[in-house]
Amino acid sequence: MGVRTVLDSAHLAREHGESAAVERLRPDVARLFSTADGAEGIHSFIERRDAAFTGR
Length: 56
Known about the structure:
This protein is mainly alpha-helical.
């Protein structure tokens, strides 16, 4: 999910400029952190362990 979001952001910047990509960044990051994988990423970082992402 994160990789797809980064690629979409790069395409948006290329087609519509960096300001358009930056404008979209906050809602994209909020959406990613609200997923199960987002929570897993945060918890694994805090617990200093490898993350077990599920794609959700």
